[in-house]
Prior knowledge:
The structure holds 2 protein chains of 2 kinds.
Chain A: H1 11-16, E1 20-24, E2 27-32, H2 36-45, E3 47-51, E4 56-61, H3 64-67, E5 85-91, E6 97-107, E7 110-115, H4 120-130, E8 135-138, E9 143-149, H5 153-161, E10 173-178, E11 181-186, E12 195-201, H6 205-214, E13 218-220, H7 223-232, H8 266-275, E14 280-286, E15 297-300, E16 303-314, E17 319-326, E18 336-341, E19 344-351
Parallel strand pairs in A: 3-13
Antiparallel strand pairs in A: 1-2, 3-9, 4-7, 4-8, 5-6, 6-7, 9-12, 10-11, 11-12, 14-17, 14-19, 15-16, 15-18, 16-17, 18-19
Helix pairs in contact in A: 2-7
Chain B: E1 2-5, E2 10-15, E3 18-23, H1 25-31, E4 34-38, E5 45-46, E6 51-57, E7 61-65, E8 70-75, H2 78-81, H3 85-88, E9 97-101, H4 113-120
Antiparallel strand pairs in B: 1-2, 2-3, 3-9, 4-6, 5-8, 6-7, 8-9
Protein name (chain A): aminomethyltransferase
Enzyme class (chain A): transferase
GO molecular function, one term (chain A): transaminase activity
Amino acid sequence: xxxxxxxxxxxxxxxxxxxxxxxxxxxxxxxxxxxxxxxxxxxxxxxxxxxxxxxxxxxxxxxxxxxxxxxxxxxxxxxxxxxxxxxxxxxxxxxxxxxxxxxxxxxxxxxxxxxxxxxxxxxxxxxxxxxxxxxxxxxxxxxxxxxxxxxxxxxxxxxxxxxxxxxxxxxxxxxxxxxxxxxxxxxxxxxxxxxxxxxxxxxxxxxxxxxxxxxxxxxxxxxxxxxxxxxxxxxxxxxxxxxxxxxxxxxxxxxxxxxxxxxxxxxxxxxxxxxxxxxxxxxxxxxxxxxxxxxxxxxxxxxxxxxxxxxxxxxxxxxxxxxxxxxxxxxxxxxxxxxxxxxxxxxxxxxxxxxxxxxxxxx
Amino acid sequence: xxxxxxxxxxxxxxxxxxxxxxxxxxxxxxxxxxxxxxxxxxxxxxxxxxxxxxxxxxxxxxxxxxxxxxxxxxxxxxxxxxxxxxxxxxxxxxxxxxxxxxxxxxxxxxxxxxxxxxxxxxx
Lengths: 363, 123
């Protein structure tokens, strides 16, 4: 194993479960335990537990406006009610996405920012440089994170930690005592299923993992299943579907950008909005079980018009699905696309998101 | 029935001039969950080690090469709707095609089970 790879506190647990481990965002992470398809099916039917300790968490304490946090992201932090969270972006001056993230409003003067693992060091430096006051701390090392996702996850959490969890609506969280320490239980996730993200001091993560797995409705799932689950509901993966060369307008994510407020990158987005985007994200379904994959070429009438950024075989749809970027005039629903890679070619059509609509997300 | 293996992890079981062809249990395990099998067309004539078809898994796409020269006389159509059979039974029910073997002397270019097991220790 690469010595430079970071390990989560659960590394020993993954090895004991004979997980296939692989580098992800600078971390040695479990890709699969029993198998990606079986883990995917379990999450859609029962409840799956994911080690997400690799993700980064930052804490801002102070006045959001005076401290400058209000002008750092594509959405207002000050208007998030305490106990709720909001998704959006950290942009560069050109409007490119440095990261996608979620802000949790912990208190009137306190917010937690949850970011991707690979981008965490850069995110921290960028946000820190843009702040004018307040206290800004990287709490990633002392913060553990487990996701429990699936239609039975509420029942499992209530059985383990009490009925107050049943009252948490989508995109809200509660701070509560778990295993004798203060933890944040948030009704968010990355699978399209009902589920929770649990933030707990990292020295308690192993105990929480073990306790949740005692419930026979719960099985561990790796990043392989997580990727299939998120793509079936059309969520973007940072580094594949969005990056610093991609703006939220190109990626069809303008719903998470508030142009009525100030933020770094806004001028570029306004210009792009006026001039029109050169490429646009599309979702597409293949007409067979073939999988499109990252970097495959998208063609229309024999001409290369774009690139696949994510693709998998969808077990729920029984066919290949993917995301990619094409010329904007080819982004309308139903546009036929041919996906080419070496001698392989597959027929696809632009479709609406999400691919899979049967999830328990809002139930 | 004798079974022979290629370095690319295909197998062929030979009986009365017909070779049943598939991928090894080792290869199926390495690929992980198999989601699509591209079978050869009936009647296709292949040379030894030519491309015969392809297998896609959640993790990767990989070409399948023919262990023998000959003509494809039967294909495992069950794999069209249930490619996971290859994971469940790579060296039996997960066969891909039957090939009418053109030249059994080519089998000397392949490995026996014992040789293949030794080979797996080196890859």
